[in-house]
Amino acid sequence: MNPADRLAGQSRLPNVKTTIFAVMSQMAARHGAINLSQGFPDFECPARLRQLAAEAMAAGHNQYAPMPGLPALRERIAEKVGDMYGAGVDMDTEITVTSGATEALFVAIQTVVRPGDEVIVFDPAYDSYQPAVELAGGRCVHLPLGAPDYAIDFDALADAVGPNTRLVIVNSPHNPSGSALSPADLERLEQVLARSDAFVLSDEVYEHIVFDGLAHQSLLRSESLRARSFVVSSFGKTYHTTGWKVGYCIAPPTMTSEFRKIHQYVTFSISTPMQHAIAQFMADPSFHLELPDFYQAKRDHFRGALDDTAWDLMPCRGTYFQLLGYRRIGNLPDVEMAEWLTREVGVACIPVSVFNADGNDESILRFCFAKGDRTLDAAAEKLRAVGKELHPPDRTCR
Ligand SMILES: Cc1ncc(COP(=O)(O)O)c(C=O)c1O
């Protein structure tokens, strides 16, 4: 057998298949369904941002950027987290610009996780954490976040943290549930970790998408958490530019210097004109300061169109995802329910069980509302028919 033929049997990630996001998007395209499955906007990023990117290219900013990121961009990031979270972050030793949050998450995990280490992950969890932990030789310990609030059970966390715990991964605002850490949660996290040597990886890509006047509880607000944390964010979510893949990681100097050793051999540096454009755009903070209202209007629009239906609207404190429960509509497993909705109703979504390592299925689906109002209206009209004119097949009848 040649090496290529042997490789499938020697996979570094034998349990990883094509992600559900690709599967549902393909299915949506095949059936002409409205795609509320994958998490990206269907509207344009700000015209001025595009203009700034074009100007940066025209001005000749087309060669490698410095490995840690453009100084002008790191300066803006330091200013922003100072203004928003009261954190004094050193742009030279604590901030690294990365290829989206995805690279930052991957590199942070490779930086600290060694073979045999345990990493605590809260389920439902974003899908990139576990493969990165496994590639580093670590093992995920999954703790459940329960519907409808999806709050961390800090007693369960205290029980799970032990001598082998190397890293705890938190994500707030939380994909897929839309839950968000409160100030009391930050305090509990501080207390639970005070007795441990564990690092924290805080995925804060939706930091600027929090609703109802809540303030985002960045781990940068807490001196003791900051001292052990990699805090990750993404300009893709903030500026409607998921395709630009520009994000960053903030961590204390010793952690950053180890992080950069890996970052420099994964990507070395990030698109120069995009960094110039974002740095200039950030000089005026109004866009990210107005983002909560922008998305809150979409959340309320989508929820309002569904609030007198058999769908159960779960709380949504942040992100651009709305969870809908369907216990009053049918009893199909959530993956089959999502497939039926795509095929027969014409709306694609993501079944929440795929975010659970044990496949726990609570009859809940995730819908992305980062879409134009007309798309949301069309989707809501179709969803309103479910449980009235349109009924999913009964699981017991199959
Ligand atoms: C929770 C979470 N983390 C990280 C990412 C990845 O961000 P990026 O596109 O900047 O790599 C996403 C994207 O959907 C996400 O939802």
Task: Give me the secondary-structure topology.
Elements: H1 3-7, H2 20-31, E1 34-35, H3 47-58, H4 71-85, E2 95-98, H5 100-112, E3 118-123, H6 129-135, E4 139-144, H7 154-160, E5 165-171, H8 183-194, E6 199-203, H9 223-226, E7 229-234, H10 235-238, E8 247-250, H11 253-266, H12 272-282, H13 286-304, E9 312-313, E10 321-325, H14 334-345, E11 347-348, E12 350-351, E13 364-368, H15 373-384
Parallel strand pairs: 1-11, 3-4, 3-5, 5-6, 6-7
Antiparallel strand pairs: 2-8, 7-8, 9-10, 10-13, 12-13
The structure holds pyridoxal-5'-phosphate.
Bound compounds, each kind once, are: pyridoxal-5'-phosphate
By CATH, the topology of the largest domain is Aspartate Aminotransferase, domain 2
Which blocks of ≥5 consecutive residues have pLDDT under 50?
A: none
CATH superfamily of the largest domain: Type I PLP-dependent aspartate aminotransferase-like (Major domain)
Tell me the span between the first and last alpha carbons: 43 Å
**How large is the count of helical segments?**
15
What is the string of helix and strand elements?
HHEHHEHEHEHEHEHEHEHHHEEHEEEH
Query: Structural class, from secondary structure content?
Result: alpha/beta
By DSSP, the count of extended strands is 13
CATH architecture grouping of the largest domain: 3-Layer(aba) Sandwich
Structural summary, described in words:
The structure is a single chain. With 398 residues, this protein is of the alpha/beta class. It has two domains: 3-45 and 287-387, Aspartate Aminotransferase, domain 1 (Alpha-Beta Complex), CATH 3.90.1150; 64-284, Type I PLP-dependent aspartate aminotransferase-like (Major domain) (Aspartate Aminotransferase, domain 2, 3-Layer(aba) Sandwich), CATH 3.40.640. Helix content is 40%, strand content 14%. A seven-stranded mixed sheet has the order 2-8-7-6-5-3-4, with helices on both faces. It has a four-stranded antiparallel sheet with strand order 9-10-13-12. Helix 3 crosses helix 12 (272-282) and helix 7 (154-160) runs parallel beside helix 8. The longest helix is centred in the last third of the chain and has 19 residues, at 286-304. The protein starts with a helix and ends in a 14-residue tail after the last helix. Bound molecules: pyridoxal-5'-phosphate. The site of pyridoxal-5'-phosphate has 14 residues, from helix 5.
